[in-house]
Amino acid sequence: MLKEKNQLDNILVLKSNGDQVPFDRNKILNALKLAGAKNNESYEILNQIESNLYNGIPTRKIFQLAYSLLRKKKSHRVAGRYRLKKAIFEMGPSGYPFEIFVGKLFESFGYKVKVGQQIQGKCVQHEIDVIAIKPGEQIIIECKFHGDYRAKTNVQVPLYINSRFNDIKEKWIEEGQYKELNIRGYVVTNSRFTKDAIKYAECAGLGLISWDYPKESSLKHFIDKSGLYPITSLHTLNKTQKRHFLDEGIVLCRELLEREDLMRKYLFSDNQISKVMGEAKVLIDS
User: Fold this and answer.
1) pLDDT tens digit sequence for 123-161
2) Element (H, E) at 107
3) Contact 283, 76 (CB under 8 A)
4) Dist. CA 262–CA 267, nearest whole Å
């Protein structure tokens, strides 16, 4: 039974950091609509969620319920987009698939990309996760992957990365390299930055990209704009199958469509291959 509005006003939900906050139906509606759910579909799902609320319900449970309801409606495109944030965290436990994924994102915007490069600085040699280059610009990117969605990237990370970036830049200046290029350092994380991390980076001129920062240049924004959805978005693959493909260097749904041979290698049936390809195509075409 749908709870009365005054009952919902008293419902507190438990966030991942342990805080309890009032239930906000607008956050659910916005998330569903951003994922591509139609207006009437969003309200139907919201009504079912509200009917199952109880005081102290974890936000994780609300997410799981919304995703389950989307799947029952066979809205594979919307469900895949709705669970995108969780899908990014499932690219672990190592950070290497995330580095490849970030490289693919920059490639989609016209950069030539190299992953896992050794670069000599003025003082020491550095291992750089991603280098992105296009005419007039070169970007040095450090990827910070967290397996725990509650984790935040604190100020020590941009401090450390900026010192490495400056060491490399000083070496290039000393050797007269890349005089005509705008050279910039970036930190990209799948979680969030602390306020001090953002404050320092803004002051130092270091670029930051997290799940939702900056608003118009966030990880989520770039994924939606490029259509480069990770294979971990697919519910037709189980965790073991996803890990097989990540270990093979396949991180994108569109890459998977070209690798039927790998699906057969891991003993997929014709029926499952058809389901996986169908879901991947729907998500990509969204």
Assistant:
1) 999 999 999 999 989 999 999 999 887 789 999 999 999
2) helix 96-108
3) yes
4) 9
Whether 25 contacts 50, CB under 8 Å: yes
The verdict on whether omega for the bond into residue 93 sits within 30 degrees of 0, i.e. cis, is: yes
178, 134 contact by CB (below 8 A): no
- Burial of 186 from C-beta contacts in 10 A (0-12 / 13-18 / 19+): buried
| DSSP label of 177 | -
**Confidence (pLDDT) at 26:** 86
What the block records as the tokens of 60 is: 């994780």
Instruction: Give the C-alpha separation, 186 to 141, whole Å.
Output: 5
Rounded CA-CA distance 120/171 in Å is 8
Distance CA 46, CA 40 (A): 10
pTM above 0.85, yes or no: no
Strands (E), the chain: 12-14, 20-22, 57-58, 112-120, 125-134, 137-144, 152-153, 182-189, 192-193, 207-209
250 Cα distance to chain centroid = 16
Centre a 10 Å sphere on the Cβ of residue 253 and count the other Cβ atoms it contains: 24
For the chain, what is the radius of gyration of the CA atoms? 21
Residues 130, 115 contacting (CB under 8 angstroms): yes
Closest CA relative to residue 190, chosen from 232, 133, 234, 127: 232
Residue carrying structure tokens 């672990």: 92
Q: Are 79 and 235 in contact (CB under 8 A)?
A: yes
